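Quick one: co-fold with FE(4)-NI(1)-S(5) cluster.
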Amino acid sequence: MADLEKKSIDPATIKMLKKAADDGCETIFDRAEAMKPCPIGAEGSCCKNCAMGPCRVPAPKKKEGVPPKERMGLCGATAETIAARNFARMVAAGTASHSDHARGIAEVFLATAKGKMPEFSIKDEQKLYQVAMDLDIEIADRSVQDIAVDVGRKALEEFGRQEGELLFIKRAPAKRQELWRKLGVVPRGIDREVVELMHRTHMGVDQDYQSLLLSAARCALADGWGGSMISTDLQDILFGNPVPVLGQINLGVLKKDQINVVVHGHEPLLPEVLVAVVNEPEIQKAALATGAKGINLVGMCCSANEILMRHGVPVAGNFLQQELAIVTGAVDAMVVDVQCEMQSLAQVAKCYHTKLITTSPKAKIEGAMHIEFDEHRAGAVARKILAEAIGNYKNRKSNVEIPEETTDQVVGFSYETINYLLGGVFRASYRPLNDNIINGRIRGIAGVVGCNNARVTHDDPNLTLIKELIKNDVIVLVTGCAAMTCGKAGLLTPEAAKLYAGEGLASVCEAVGIPPVLHMGACVDNSRILMAATAVVKAGGLGDDISDLPAAGAALEWMSEKAVAIGHYFVASGVYTVFGVTWPTSGSEEVTKLLFEEYENVFKGKWGFEADPIEAARKMIEHIDKKRKALGIDKARERVLFDMDKRREIDAA
Ligand code: NFS
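Sure, here it is.
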């Protein structure tokens, strides 16, 4: 048990790890113990971009006294070039993932607008008008359909544009746009930036690490202000902009006496249709006929975030819990689309009775059943999947054990919702937030995002960091698997403010009725954080660029290439961003120094690495305080810190 506690801080996870061991079923946690990461690859010093390699140029041990420049691959590529190229390729892959997701949504959106996809519709007209205006599309007295067709077309054009600027770049603060133009990093088309970055990182092309990383910034910006932002906006128009909703999270949401269907992955198209058809009388009847008490549809990873935010569908868990949902023995079907689905799901499913069903033509898994999702007959596909789950219920084995853990969470804090909550429907505004930052009740804003990573204790770094931040009056915006960590720990309820937040932050949360940690959605919804940061800048009083804000970002349990793309667009947007676990360019001092230090002068944002969550919180708060000082609002904060109540508290201590 003691050993298991090093693997996760989540009791449900620990119980299922024990069960997996009893059942003789191997998980990622076992493999993480048996196989250590390659140290040369981990520091970004392995180049496998041609067949003369892989060339390994590990950083010389200090005592060897070898000057770094003497280390090079067969072609002469230096440790700097190799580290920068590897980093840039992670950015390209991450950008491609978010953006290919966006393209799929944009295609469905356009077909829906044209009336060619009757199973989807334009749900949020308000958001449609907003996005149309941002895309310079005329609204006047045009029909919703005409406007939507134009929005769909323009969104799709963003991928293939060869010159000019991505349209959403104009949403950023003017000063930021100027800086990007000066640096030559304004993305043209999304696909173009990914292709160019793959070209530049090919053997024998761009061999200047500064140039490579600037190009990586341009590609990353095509993710944050392009692909990811298009995903978020079009999904909101199609499925509704999230508003606060109550949900439950953790493996305890699975039901022993119901047919459990876990939907896992990223694109909300199929999950939305599953939500729509699961309660159809025919399906319910078929489910009841098996002896089960009904069908229980739950989510996993970012698919879960999407349907949680819009429908309050329960969440089974985050990335490292995907195998463990199956280990309960109670999952009758796990339905996956794209991204973050571990291949081992097929093996784990074999230990139990679970049907693993792949649905995307882009993502097949050996050993899984494939039922391809086709948006034109979305309902039929969803019904077929549910029928498979229903038919599989009878195959459950006797070793079913579901941990009882579930936690309530209030989610759905889209950028627009925060606006309304703060200012009221008739004078929606971020100004009250700014006022509370200026008067010091709120010290600053942090975005804590990203994955789980089996190399560190599951959920621990992110949770420790976030608790430390809110204790110090920093309001925290969360997405992705980090958001789920908070949900499980009970931080996503308004009551959490009193329990965990500092006095100033708690007083604001209580007045507005919000949790101290705001769940903003899936990883593509990090674009909501960019929009929120921009709204704070525009509300006034806190400088005129994102980099002026008392704000910082972190992903202490990151693992995916998408996380690197996200981090790089946050840095390029002016945010100090701290990663944990491991740092992928540590093989080159120069590259790391550029990202960690010199970028503060280039982008007015920079990267940082800190594996210790308390230390990461300290660095982020230090940065926030530095920004407060530059804004001249550090004094206001001192007054709040030492008011009478606080003094009494200090005296009593
Ligand atoms: Ni983000 Fe979502 Fe989770 Fe990481 Fe994967 S599910 S897109 S990549 S692991 S946060």
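If it helps, The pocket of FE(4)-NI(1)-S(5) cluster is lined by residues 266, 301-302, 319, 340, 450-451, 480-481, 522-523, 560, 562-563 (CB under 6 Å).
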